[in-house]
Amino acid sequence: MAKMTISLPDNLAEYVENRVATGRYSSAGAFLAELILKDQLHHTLDDEELRNMLRQAEESGPSDRRIPDILSETKAKLRDNNL
To answer: Are 34 and 25 in contact (CB under 8 A)?
Structure first.
């Protein structure tokens, strides 16, 4: 097992300590390991979703929509989702 040393701002260190104090985690390392595993799963799902979207796009064939229209729609969706 590899050992890492990290520095956190006081407020984040206190948060980690509080999470460990709940008894759900045996240590700060256990808490951080769970966060990392969740992050890996999230990114794996994102990658799978992206591959599915690309596959669907390839199967749908050429679009009759213009690029400026697609960009405008995408920007509007991002604004609506606060991204």
So the answer is: yes
Q: The whole model's pTM is what?
A: 0.54
Helix (H) or strand (E) holding 67: helix 67-80
6: Cβ contacts below 8 Å, ≥ 6 apart: 32
pLDDT tens across 2-13, in order? Answer: 999 999 999 999
Instruction: Output the six-digit token pair for 13.
Output: 């260190």
Helix H or strand E encompassing 69 = helix 67-80
Question: How is residue 16 written in tokens?
Answer: 């980690």
Amino acid at 16: V
How far is the C-alpha of 8 from the C-alpha of 17, rounded, in Å? Answer: 12
